[in-house]
Amino acid sequence: MGIFDRVSDLLKANVNDLIDRAEQPDKMVKQIIIDMEAQVAKATQGLGVAMGSYNQVKKQLEQAQEDEKKWTEKAKVCLSQGEEELAKKALENKVKAEAQKNQYQEMVNSMGEQVQSIKDQIMTLKQKLEEARSKQAMLIARDQMADAKSKMSKAFSGVDTGSAFKKMEKMEQKIAAKEAQADAFSEIGGMESGEFDEFERVEKNAAVDSELEKLKREMGL
User: Which residues form a coiled coil (predicted)?
Assistant: First the structure.
């Protein structure tokens, strides 16, 4: 009937398949839901129009059935009164009513099938819509996680970890060499300081001895 032409792929395909084909899955999911909601509204409106026509034809069928019974009863009354010509006219009208009844019956049967088909399609579309809504958050989260993994992979692919660790080892060796050199200088400095102190002690002792001798002479000792 053309109502579901734009969303035929949504009825035939799984929502995940559509997501896989989309360049921007989050936007695609939202657009799918918007499209399906619009189609549900359009289909529901079309169903209302179809059901209106269907109910109208059903009323015409009921009227034709009543007319058929009415002219049949009139034909019987005419015959009971000996009015055969009037009975024939009544039967002519009865035949016309019967033909209309049969025509309306065919229309009712055909339109009833069409109405039911539209109802079934709307039900299917609503189920797909609910499925899309329930999966929306999950699919968007999965898409974001995939993007994050992709970015991390690209970031790590640009880093030469082997080279980085070699550079760190060289830096460690240089620092260790500097530390050893500093320790050596400290040791040498300590030795020089010890030797200087020893010479200074000897000089101080000589000065003290000189003063002691001087004091002894003054005291006559």
Answer: 54-142
CA distance 172 to 175: 5
Q: Which residue, 139, 150, 125, is CA-closest to 22?
A: 139
Written as six digits, the tokens of 68 are 């058929």
Kindly state the greatest CA–CA separation across the chain.
Answer: 195
DSSP output for 191-202: HHHHHHHHHHHH
Q: How many Cα atoms are found within 13 Å in the side-chain-facing hemisphere of 190?
A: 6
Q: Which amino acid is at 36?
A: M
DSSP of 130-142: HHHHHHHHHHHHH
Q: Which tens digit of pLDDT belongs to each residue from 1-37?
A: 444 454 455 444 455 555 555 556 667 778 888 888 8
Q: At what angle do helices 84-157 and 25-80 cross, to 10 degrees?
A: 170
Residue burial 48-70, b: 16+ Cβ < 10 Å; e: rest? eebeeebeebbebbeebbebbee
- Tell if the pTM clears 0.70, that is, is over it: no
DSSP 116: H
User: How far is the C-alpha of 34 from the C-alpha of 18, rounded, in Å?
Assistant: 14
CA gap 2, 111 in Å, rounded: 16
